[in-house]
Amino acid sequence: MTNHYITSQNGAPVADDQNSVTAGARGPVLLQDFHLIEKLAHFNRERIPERIVHAKGTGVYGTFTVTNDLSQYTIADHFQGVGKQTEVFVRFSTVGGEMGSADAERDPRGFGVRFYTARGNHDIVGNNTPTFFLRDGIKFPDFIHTQKRNPMTNLKDPQAMWDFWSLNPEALHQVTILMSDRGIPANYRQMHGYGSHTFSFWNAKGERYWVKFHFRCQQPIANLTEEQAAKVKGIDPDHAQRDIVAAITDGNFPRWQLCVQIMPEADAEKYHVNPFDLTKVWSHKDYPLIEVGMMELNRLPQNYFAEVEQVALAPSNLVPGVGASPDKMLQARLFAYADAQRYRIGANYNQLPVNCPHATQANHHQRAGAMAGTQCPYHQSQTGGDATPNYGPNSVETGLQDASQFKEPPLRIDGDADRYSRFDQDDFTQAGDLYRIFSEEEKQRLADTIAGTLSQATQDVQQKMICHFSRADADYGARVAKALAK
User: Fold this and answer.
1) Could you give the C-alpha distances from 179 to 66, 116, 171, 347, in angstroms and in order?
2) Topology (CATH level 3) of domain 51-361
3) Is 5 marked within a binding site?
4) Does the keyword section mention Heme (predicted)?
């Protein structure tokens, strides 16, 4: 029997395909949302073997040095003690392109940082933008499908891209960033980085704070125009990879200052925007940047495949003192990234040298699976097929115990489990605020860039987008309409 409604893979009708089940309108996503899990799990298995997103990138090792002790906010040891150094690994990447794509595409840039801390690996897996196109991870597979190749023609599809954005005005802020002069970074060394999501800190008193991470570039920011990028793609499609290899080889070590925005837990209830909405930023006037330390990249990997291709960054790699938040995109990524790595590399991917903890020992009861027994060269761990019990609790005197001293304080949640949409949303103000700080020349280039691909979409999609631009700022909409009419 033919029907016209969306179903799960078992044929069951899906009542709402666009909103995750959460505990209250601003609460965390519930694991019982089997439709969300099915979408994300299937999405993670759609390509073999390269990453579905962030396929092309480069990695560099370095150090992070604390310049301002944050012990009043967090028990995370790598953010405490002025002068304390922590080894880091950073992977830069484009997002939408395949392994063979050009580095100079108009695309967000992945900015993933791993801290090899004394209490485990802490990954901040972000971008070079403080926002994203979506606020709910259930939409992520659909969005990426519009950025990839059309399944029939195997060509990029501007109609799909703009059709999706026209039906999801929450993307407008990030679209404005992407289509502006900031949309094509000149290289990986001359751009800011952001954790983008809202995370949490907690201190020794059990007090929780909401936090956003900012990596402030210490090199001059540089971007490419559309014309410059077109030339660079033809001359050297690997220019960003070549640039950072040359810089490190020459001893020109790039640096970023890590800063945080800190919001007391109680402020989240009364802040004028949802602080867990990934399409929004927090005003620096409300929550100023607080310096944490300096990151310097100074060492190249010795084997690209082993260290860069097999690095498995995941936002679920959290350490005591740093936690998640009810950010719905983050909640989905906590599952999706680690699951993608298990599929892409294997169940024991964390035993590989680039992924295993460098400054501490991994001890757990997990055994077997692909690459079982792979020995981390940094420590003799209790995992991988030795004679210790593979279950807990057990009666062995030296058995593993709970680290209850690092327990995260409880998070109060309240609300009915439902698929919430349209809760106190304003998808236009911040996009308009961004547009208004651009110069006249920047505004015109933005409009021309948008028109370049929007002109390839149908008239109805063009009109929807002009309406969105106009709601952000009347001049924004008028400029795009004029550019489309040329």
Assistant:
1) 35, 35, 12, 39
2) Catalase HpII,  Chain A, domain 1 (2.40.180)
3) no
4) yes
